[in-house]
Amino acid sequence: MKKITLMLLSAFLSACSSPPKPLPVHWHKATKEVNNKIPRWKGNKGVILSPTVTENWAVDWPNFTGDKGQYTPAFYYALAHAKRIIVKSKNEDERINAKRWLQSHGARAVIDYQNEAYCLLCKNTAITFIHDNNETVKSNEASQKTPSPVIKTGITNRGLMNKPAPKEIGKGDLFSETKNTAIKTTPVKPIVKLALPVWRAEVRSTLHGVLVKWSNKATCNNTDKWRIQWNSKKDYSIDSALSFRGAYLDVVVQLFNLYQKAASPLYADVYKTQCLIIINDFDKDKNKGR
């Protein structure tokens, strides 16, 4: 009896473990296309936000061209995680278009504007992304309402900004507690604002002569003098007295901007490291196709 039971049990287990028979293929029927298109993956600009960003950093992108540009993953990371964004350009329309582009691609920070109408070397729109954990959203909004004045003392050289993390200030650096828990502040020295020099152009003088006169008074890199290389046969006379206040390079830009609408304008190329200003009849950058 036991032998018959074991044989029946083994036959039952072997029947359960066998796979089902495959469906027969009807070769006489017409074929059907199942996947008639190759799946294609399309890249996107989406960034998965990091839950915590503890570092303080600043990234400068000197040549921003919107949809025409090619941007690295580091650019989109800075775009998504920056707490403050600064758009620097000479043209108001370019700044507005840059803001719309940044917001449509994931920017969540406050976007500031920096007008560079008097910057000779600033040809393109630049974007600066800043992430500082010591700044709060409220402080950013307050700075938008009451921005601090910016005094331009020369032409800004653009490049990657690798700023170290700000040092944390201890309690003993600014105040000390007494036994009565009274706070004693240290005296702060008043900030002395230096008066900017005044530059004048007299009547009947020439543009070339005024530039040479100013260059003899101004210093370059605290030691050298500015040199003028006049590569044009044209010159303009000063018909009315002119007066400017500011740094040397700023007033030179203002002076040449007065003649930009002339029939034959002159263009100034500044080489700050060589303390050299070259005057040409054509725009050097446009002539190169830039």
Index terms:
single chain, 290 residues, alpha+beta, 60s Ribosomal Protein L30, Chain: A, Phage tail protein beta-alpha-beta fold, four-stranded mixed sheet, three-stranded mixed sheet, elongated
Q: What can be said about the biggest beta sheet?
A: 4 strands, mixed
Secondary-structure content class: alpha+beta
**Helix amount, in percent?**
25-40%
Rounded to the nearest angstrom, the distance between the terminal CA atoms is 100 Å
What is Rg?
35 Å
Oligomer: single chain
Strand order of the largest sheet: 1-4-2-3
For this structure, the CATH topology of one domain is: 60s Ribosomal Protein L30, Chain: A
Strand content: 15-25%
CATH architecture of one domain: 2-Layer Sandwich
Shape: elongated
What does this structure look like?
It is a single chain. The protein has 290 residues and is α+β, with helices and mostly antiparallel strands. Among the domains are: 94 residues, 60s Ribosomal Protein L30, Chain: A (2-Layer Sandwich); 90 residues, Phage tail protein beta-alpha-beta fold (3-Layer(bab) Sandwich), CATH 3.55.50. The protein is 26% helix and 20% strand. It contains eight helices and 13 strands. Strands 1-4-2-3 form a four-stranded mixed sheet, sandwiched between helices. The protein has a three-stranded mixed sheet with strand order 10-13-12, covered by helices on one side. Strands 5-6 form a two-stranded antiparallel ribbon. About 9% of the residues have low confidence.
